[in-house]
Design brief:
This protein is an alpha/beta fold and 326 residues long. It folds into 2 domains: 168 residues, Rossmann fold (3-Layer(aba) Sandwich), CATH 3.40.50.2300; 130 residues, Rossmann fold. It has 11 helices and 12 strands. Helix 2 crosses helix 11 and helix 3 runs parallel beside helix 4.
Length: 326
């Protein structure tokens, strides 16, 4: 994120916090509905949510399944919406499944914003998260640089999840700049470490040996790195996503080259500030491509950054400090 953009975001946050400092309703509660909430990424998001709730003087809770389970997330959303909260944040995994839930909640007067993964076709008010296409471009250009612009690449993803599809688009655009970069296979890792492990074992046992491995979501590349290490396969380029401690450990060990770090703490902290402000200011209107006078944006980009061996130790210190503060 550029310095100017960061200044604007901080300024907006300051204004919104001051606007939302009026007396809150008794029992005013907000929910974040995510999938796989026990993974470190969503634990970091929970820390941001709790910190924001404390600063605002409201109640907030993260709910959802402990493993990747879109149906269970759908049920968790419906259960939370049934409590008539002051507002909701949602990570859109299976958009077809969640869109009716989101639309129904908004129609009942519950403000809903998407975080991390968007549901752009729903009635959600806005999206707070990463510019995922740019994150894919960042990773793809690094992969091309580290392989000299020529490599057979394996990609791990969950097909159909909007944020991951945008990242894949970014990687493809980056690889189009280096025609020697070829995506040999796209693995549906199903949000599951076991599936990732088995697929990686199968791939490296094949006749064609990949040059690079790319992971579009949080948990895959630490598993990929583990398999490569077990099989004593060196010299492979591995580009991860997000900052699971296992991923960071493999960067320090030199098996993962780099990871694209998002800002889940910022997403949920600022997302709750927005929801609180929307709840107390009914004049705020949904932004849209054709609404040039909307009082809400369509998209708040929380930024992303590259973590590699040169800065991983400093990142771990900052991460530990932020999550301990919750």
């Amino acid at each position: 994120m550029r310095v100017r953009d960061a200044f604007v975001l901080v300024a907006c946050c300051t204004v919104l916090v001051s606007c939302s400092s009026s007396k809150h309703d008794p029992g005013e509660t907000y929910y974040l509905v995510a999938a796989n909430i026990k993974v470190p990424y969503w634990q970091t998001a929970s820390a941001g949510l709790i910190r924001s709730a404390k600063d605002l003087g409201v109640a907030a809770e993260m709910v959802g399944p402990d493993t990747y389970d879109p149906n269970a997330q759908h049920e968790a959303f419906q259960h939370a919406a049934g409590k008539k909260p002051a507002g909701m944040m949602v990570q859109a995994t299976d958009v077809k499944l969640l869109q009716p839930d989101i639309d129904a909640a908004v129609q009942q007067g519950i403000p809903v914003i998407a975080v991390d993964s968007d549901a752009a076709s729903s009635k959600r008010l806005l999206f707070v998260g990463t510019n995922n296409h740019m994150a894919g471009l960042m990773g793809g250009r690094l992969a091309a640089k580290l392989t000299g612009g020529k490599a057979n690449v394996i990609v791990y993803t969950i097909p159909g999840q909007p944020n991951l599809e945008e990242r894949l688009h970014g990687y493809k655009d980056a690889f189009s700049e280096s025609p020697g970069m070829k995506i040999e296979r796209v693995v549906d890792m199903k949000g599951d470490e076991g599936t990732t492990f088995d697929a990686t074992k199968e791939i490296i046992a094949g006749k064609t040996k990949p040059d690079a491995f790319v992971c579009l979501e949080a948990i895959a590349c630490k598993v990929v790195a583990d398999v490569l290490n077990r099989e004593h396969m060196t010299g492979k380029i591995v580009i991860a996503m997000d900052t699971d401690r296992g991923t960071l450990d493999w960067i320090q060990k030199g098996v993962i080259n780099a990871t694209i770090a998002q800002k889940p703490y910022t997403m949920t902290y600022f997302g709750l500030v927005l929801l609180d402000n929307i709840h107390h200011n009914k004049s705020l209107e949904q932004g849209g491509a054709s609404n040039t006078f909307a009082t809400l944006p369509v998209f708040v980009d929380t930024g992303s950054t590259m973590i590699d061996k040169s800065n991983v130790a400093d990142f771990i210190k900052a991460q530990d400090s932020a999550t301990a503060a919750k």
